[in-house]
Design a protein that fits this description.
The chain starts with 5 loop residues before the first strand and ends with a helix. The longest helix has 20 residues, at 227-246. The protein is an alpha+beta fold. A hairpin with a 6-residue loop joins strand 6 (103-111) and strand 7 (118-130). The chain has helices at residues 56-68, 170-187, 227-246, 292-300, 306-317, 321-327, 331-343, 347-364, 376-388, 393-406, 410-416, 425-438, 440-447, 452-464, 471-484; strands at 6-17, 72-73, 76-77, 80-83, 93-96, 103-111, 118-130, 134-137, 147-150, 157-163, 199-209, 219-222, 254-259, 264-270, 280-281, 288-289. The strands form 4 sheets. It has a 9-stranded mixed β-sheet. It folds into 3 domains: 3-296, no CATH class; 302-416, no CATH class; 425-484, Arc Repressor Mutant, subunit A (Orthogonal Bundle), CATH 1.10.10.410. It is elongated, with a radius of gyration of 30 Å. The structure holds zinc ion. Zinc ion (ZN) binds next to loops.
């Protein structure tokens, strides 16, 4: 199969649950993990005679998101009914936005792996809708003998964010969703937890021979609930379609599901079974007018976004693009970094500790930065002690690890464990002499011109002092002693 002869065309539809306190059209709570069917009322259960009331916070979050994605906010939009029958949808229609969405025509930049270049992905539209309930299957949707219905999620406010088909690989699709997620987290409009379903993603994928302008027949893939699954599903699907074309077959337009166990996509339904949703304006909800003043108020309240933060770190702190991108990947991470720099105004030093030791320990313990017990104040204290030479770099790493485990302040750890660096020359000289006497063979090697031998002896001095000897002084005294022999 020759992948290089084909171009893949990928567009994504991302659904995000908004972090409002109550549902889109009723007062029920939106909290995740409650007893099934307890966060429900006549409105979200779809009882006859009930009337929906629009949640202002949902609109505000939609405007925020639209602006952050460089969209134009519509001054006039409306809600429509999307009609279909399914057990998780008690009204038999979903309130959504059809032809007049709240935000259109935006864009988002993704970084292309490795070379520091970026690619612009168009955002077609952002619209508001309500979520359906949840069907709980026994195992797999294709093989389950029965399903249970939980309507707690029914009526939860959602945004659907539709991209242009501007991506051409699984890696790009992943980068797009990662970037989108980072922006939504900076905006604080959603938790964006893929594993809990508060961020869900469908991919439309087609392939065409290089040079062909007409789009190939597409397949839609659902049920990818991690970044890894998204990347793999897209790559699998591209290969599957190319293989069919190479063998002279035709692609059938269908909806497919990603099977995590087999790592393949499976057909769920073909185009012939596709729904005609019979959209029509919801007569129970007034069209929504968003005046310029409201949009501008929201624009003024936008927080710093990942791209802006990244630029700030490069321009103000002189960090590399790579470091800045890592430090601004999450809002928590950026806030931690900023707080540390305020306490210890040497951005490069702070960045190295956060991306090095801290990242390593967080990773090892499967923790996130918000769970970190080292406060910016404590880190600043450690870096000051290191800078003053009270402790060596090696000891600092040891103390840092202790701070990470216990949350104690560095001066306390250093005092309790007697880790203060020895800079007293007489003390170090005594150790140097001991080491020289104990290693006559190495000293001979040194005299015979083996440079490495000196390194070994310095190591022995550090070891004998339990890492506390000031390495510069140890090095100097050792060389002085050796030159005297
Ligand atoms: Zn309700």
């Amino acid at each position: 199969m020759s992948r290089s002869k084909y171009e893949a065309v990928i567009g994504l539809e991302v659904h995000v649950e908004l972090k409002t306190n109550s549902k889109a059209f009723c007062g029920c709570a939106t909290s995740f993990g409650a007893e099934p069917n307890t966060n429900v009322c006549p409105i979200c259960l779809g009882m006859p005679g009930t009337l929906p009331v629009l949640n202002r916070q949902m609109v505000e979050y939609a405007i925020k998101t639209g602006l952050a994605l460089n969209c134009r906010i519509a001054e006039f939009c409306k809600f429509d009914r999307k009609n279909y029958y399914y057990p998780d949808l008690p009204k038999n229609y979903q309130i959504s936005q059809y032809d007049l969405p709240i935000a259109i025509g935006g864009k988002l930049d993704i970084e292309i792996e490795g070379d520091g270049a970026s690619k612009t992905i168009g955002i077609t539209r952002v619209h508001m809708e309500e979520d359906a309930g949840k069907l709980v299957h026994q195992g797999n949707i294709m093989t389950t003998p029965y399903s249970l219905v939980d309507l707690n999620r029914a009526g939860t406010p959602l945004l659907e964010i539709v991209s242009e088909p501007d991506m051409s690989s699984g890696a790009e699709a992943r980068r797009y969703v990662e970037k989108l997620r980072a922006i939504l987290l900076f905006l604080e409009v959603s938790d964006c937890k893929m594993e809990e379903g508060s961020l869900r993603c469908d991919a439309n994928i087609s392939v065409r021979p290089n040079g062909q302008t007409k789009l190939g027949t597409k397949a839609e893939i659902k049920n990818m609930n991690s970044f890894r699954a998204l990347e793999r599903a897209v790559e699998y699907e591209i290969d599957r379609q190319i293989k069919i074309l190479e063998e002279g077959g035709t692609i059938i337009q269908d909806t497919r599901t990603w099977d995590e166990v087999q790592q393949i996509t499976l057909s769920m339904r073909s185009k012939e079974e596709a729904h005609d949703y019979r959209y029509f304006p919801d007569p129970d909800l007034m069209p929504l007018k968003i005046d310029q003043a409201w949009t501008e108020r929201v624009r003024a309240s936008l927080p710093e976004l990942p791209d802006q933060a990244c630029l700030r770190l490069v321009e103000e702190y002189n960090l590399s693009q790579y470091d800045a991108a890592l430090l601004t990947a999450t809002k928590d991470g950026l806030e931690y970094f900023d707080a540390c720099v305020r306490q210890y105004p040497q951005p490069k030093v702070v960045a190295n500790w956060i991306m090095g030791e801290l990242a390593r320990l967080l990773n090892q313990n499967n923790m996130e930065i918000k769970d970190c017990r080292i406060t910016p104040h404590a880190l600043s204290q450690l870096l000051t002690l290191l800078e003053k030479g009270t402790i060596s770099g090696k000891i600092a790493k040891k103390v840092f690890e202790e701070m990470f485990q216990t949350g104690a302040l560095p001066d306390k750890i250093i005092e309790e464990q007697g880790l203060v660096q020895i800079s007293d020359e007489a003390g170090i000289l005594a150790i140097v002499k001991e080491v020289i006497n104990a290693n006559p063979k190495v000293v001979d090697d040194f005299k015979n011109g083996k440079g490495k031998a000196a390194g070994f002896l310095v190591g022995q001095v550090m070891k004998a002092s339990k890492g506390k000897a000031n390495p510069e002084i140890a090095n100097r005294l050792l060389n002085e002693e050796l030159s005297r022999l």
